[in-house]
Amino acid sequence: MLDKTFPQYNWSRNGFTRNRWELLFPNQKRHTAKMKFKVRTLIVLLCVTAICVSWRGYMSFSLPQDERLCACERCLSEDDPWFMKHFNKSVEPFLSANYNLSEDTFNWWKLLRDAKGNFSNFRGKVERLFLMVPPSPDVLESSPDRCRTCAVVGNSGNLKRSHYGPLIDFHDVIIRVNAGQIKGYEADVGTRTTHRFMYPESCVDLDNTTHLVLAPFKTIDFDWLTGALTTGFNGGPHWAVRSKIKANKDLVMVLNPAFMRYVHDMWLEKKGYYPSTGFLALVVALHMCDEVSVFGYGADSDGNWSHYWEKLRKKNLKTGAHPGDTEYRMIQKLDEQQKLKFYTGF
Questions:
Q1: Predicted pLDDT at 35
Q2: d(CA 26, CA 22)
Q3: 346 vs 344: CA distance, rounded Å
Q4: Which residues fall within 8 angstroms of residue 193, CB to CB, at 6 or more apart?
Q5: pLDDT of residue 43
Q6: What percent of the chain has a predicted confidence (pLDDT) above 90?
Q7: Is the C-alpha dihedral spanning 257, 262, 268, 271 positive or negative?
Q8: Contact present, 267 and 330 (Cβ < 8 Å)
Q9: pLDDT attached to residue 315
Q10: Would you say residue 242 has pLDDT above 80?
């Protein structure tokens, strides 16, 4: 027991004084200082973390509407020089009753498949079609509180045994091309379709909820659609197409020839005669979606550009007038630049 009369220590009524504690426990002061430093450091770190989280929340939810493009984790942006070299948001993907196609673009488009008729004749056909189908396209607009996800499903043989079906069906918009089949291939290609891009020679019947997107390559294609959705179309024995098809007239959309030219010039750098329907559909998706996933494009593992539902009879099958290799490389580049997600099937 400590003696109150010990000469080095000051004794007080309330116990040891601070000096006496320091003398008896010389390490206590350093320990206390370290603890205080740790506490202060922890408080500073917590404050910095809170500020960062608050700032991220502010940037995510408080940006003005014209700066916040969508609610996706990653949106297609316009600040990438490479992407903006190709992407032109001002080009309308679809025709409308009020859209004025330039005669210069018409003359470019007319040469794709040696279309008959002059510019005035073309405009008359378009006007008649828009008396029957919606005068403006049904497109889901971008919004800061919405994330528009799109799956573009091509017809490549590399879809076989891919098991992409559930992933494809998970998207909001599911775009299919030409006569791409579903029945019997659901595990690999999914079950849903919201938009089907096709032209007369590749037409199929559609259910009442699917948008028919006409990819016109000649002026008679407008006549065909008008007739095929009403009383029937008679194109003569030289043109073997179906005279009638099943589709919802209220969901019809028509690809803009100016958009087709833009894809050929800007995205494919004028390679090939004209873009494939599949590549046109893919670039449309970049214009109308916030996140794009691509399936079923390119050759199969043996290098053949075959369809997944067909038994391949002709080896070394290529893409004809379409610049298939150029289109494929562009899809790969878009995937590398994280502008879309490319599922190769291999």
A1: 57
A2: 5
A3: 6
A4: 174, 175, 176, 182, 206, 207, 210
A5: 59
A6: 61
A7: positive
A8: yes
A9: 60
A10: yes
- Cα angle 296, 300, 302 (rounded to 5 degrees) comes to 175
Say which residues have a Cβ less than 8 Å from residue 115's Cβ, sequence separation at least 6: 109, 122, 217, 218, 219, 220
Show me where the domains of the chain are located.
11-61, 81-343
Q: Is the dihedral of CA 223, 174, 143, 277 positive or negative?
A: negative
What order of strands is seen across the sheet that includes strand 211-214?
253-254, 211-214, 195-198, 173-177, 149-153, 291-295, 341-343
Mean pLDDT in residue range 113-128: 89
State yes or no: pLDDT of 316 exceeds 90: no
From residue 217, how far is each of 86, 200, 262, 338, 345 by CA, in Å? 22, 10, 14, 31, 30
Whole-number pLDDT of residue 267: 97
- What is the pLDDT of the chain when averaged over all its residues? 83
Length of the chain: 346
Catalytic positions: 274, 322
Phi–psi pair at 255, nearest 5 degrees? -65, 140
Q: What is the mean pLDDT of residues 210-232?
A: 95
Q: Is 3.30.70.270 the CATH classification of the domain at 81-343?
A: no
